[in-house]
Structures are given as C-alpha cells and as structure tokens.
Design brief:
The protein has 133 residues and is mostly helical. It has one domain: 3 helical TM bundles of succinate and fumarate reductases, CATH 1.20.1300. The chain contains five helices and no strands. The termini are far apart.
Length: 133
C-alpha cells in the first residue's frame, strides 16, 4: 500500500515558476508592443518626420503615454529577469546572488519610476512653444 504526502514547494521554486511565466507573458506582450511601436514610428510615419515635435504630438495624448509606459515597464522587467537567469547560471554563491538581485531590483524600480515620471510629466505645449509650431 502506497502512502501519499503533500509535496512542499519552496518559496524559491514558487518565485522561479512565476518568473518563468512572467518571461513568457511579457515576451508575448513585448512582441506586440515593440512591433507596434516600430511600425508606428518608422513604417507608417516617415523616419525623416521623427523628431521632438512628432513625439510631443503623440505624448499629448494619455493613450500614447500609457502605451510607451507599458512598453518601457515590460522591456525593463523582461530584461532584468533574463539577466537574473543568466547570472544565476554562473554565480553559485547564494549570498552574492541575493545581493546582486537586490541591486538589480532597485535599479529596475528606479528606472521604471524615473522614466514613467518623465513620460507622465512631459509637457507637449511647452515643446510646441519652444519649437514655434
């Protein structure tokens, strides 16, 4: 007669499973967001028309700001998670890896926050006044 017992999943295993799923979902999201971004910026619009005025016109709308913030957030977090995976393959010291993960996480949060603040506080009207259009 076989006995059964519940399988204990460690916090690290749970985190790695969630990180794995995030990589897959953010990769799919980035595929659409990044290809859409390239199509809008470089294919639909002429590359020679891409200047600060064009960006000001786009970022005058909160929809475009949200789109670019989403692209930024997914790209930075996806890149961080990939770097974390590569580093864990080569660095086997658990304490050092924990410290590196902390520094990288702080960098990711700071990058996303300061970039989101820059995008959100972008003043299109000021650009139009300075550029004279």
């Amino acid at each position: 007669m076989a006995t059964t017992r519940p399988v204990q999943i460690s916090t690290k295993q749970r985190f790695e499973r969630m990180a794995y799923m995030f990589m897959r979902m953010s990769g799919i999201s980035l595929l659409f967001l990044a290809v859409g971004h390239v199509m809008i910026q470089l294919v639909i619009n002429d590359v020679h028309n891409l200047d600060l005025t064009f960006v000001a016109n786009q970022w005058n709308d909160w929809g475009w700001k949200a789109y670019d913030m989403l692209l930024l957030t997914f790209a930075v977090a996806h890149g961080y998670n990939g770097l974390r995976n590569v580093l864990e393959d080569y660095i086997h010291n658990e304490g050092l890896m924990r410290a590196i993960n902390f520094v990288l996480a702080v960098f990711v949060v700071a990058t996303i926050v300061w970039s989101a603040v820059a995008i959100a506080s972008f003043d299109a009207e000021l650009i139009h006044q300075v550029m004279g259009s």
